[in-house]
Amino acid sequence: MKPPAKAKSKRKLAVLSRSKKNVREFVREKPARGRRKRVQSNTGPLLPLSLNRPATEDHPAALMRPEAAYTTPFGAMVCGDAATALAALPNNSIDLIVTSPPYALHFKKEYGNADKSAYLEWFRPFAVQMHRVLKPEGSFVLNIGGSYNPGAPTRSLYHFRLLIMLCDEIGFRLAQECFWFNPAKLPSPAEWVTVRRVRIKDSVEYVWWLSKGEHPYADNRQVLEEYSADMRRLLQRGYRAKKRPSGHNITLKFLQDHGGAIPSNVLRDRVEGQDDNQVVASNLLERGNNESNSEYIKLCAEHGLKPHPARFPAALPEFYIKFLTRPGGLVLDPFAGSNTTGAVAERLQRRWLSFEIEPKYVENSRLRFGLVPGAASCSRA
Which terminus has fewer CB within 10 Å in the chain: N or C? Predict the structure, then answer.
């Protein structure tokens, strides 16, 4: 068998090259084409994190410039301007962006917030980068509150204009509009609600679920809620198939036990005595942001640190991370604050990246991961 193989090898070399130079170029060129092909066929460091081996190139920190302020087994917190940090990320690299940026409020907050008249121009550069880094099947979940016009009991339209800009100019699609109901929210503005009594308490914030493509990844079986007592009784007793007055035909399929009810587009905030992570079925995300006794607040007090003044509840990112990502997916919060999103993603075994421009909030956020606060140096380049 050896002589024929040798003859075949000689014939191949004779065909492939006329000189030693051509042979060297051929051998050099062929592996190069293979390497390019492999890079195009996967996402390199963005492959799902293996839970059975140490994170190396799979770790989100490998994507970042500047270096992360701190890292965890699943994620990295970067102290710096979100616009700069976003620009360093590769195209089509993020599965889910979930964030709550500073709102356009009439009164300035210590964490900084743009004026309503300039809010769209302020947000546009971030939006362009977020659209670029999202995967085609990725989602962008934006929690944003409304506000009143200065000096009048009428509502600003800035958040609706922002939504239109994100869709018409940037290219996002509105997958679904959702709502976060916070029953613990204080009545404001006080002049119109508690002094003149001409308005009712504003306790709902908007959650725009946006997508890059028409068919973002989503699986509502990952966020099923407990059946109501009435539904449990129906499953036990049975139900006679019939057409309802509305015209809907209720068949026997209605009695199939799917392990829980499909949630609606309202997140409820917790109320006193209710589990902080419980999501209650309704048309609202009802999540009370009254976490005066939370672990983060207690740890800040123990270390003599001032907590971030505008934290959103863990149940909000938890719901969307479960709903819109697979295990090992990469979650980004470009306006991280106290890094609630990163802490939730860590617990759910999703990889995560968080950006925050204020060093004191970056350092306080270490407490969520059992890390000791230090002194962060933020990059604002």
Answer: N
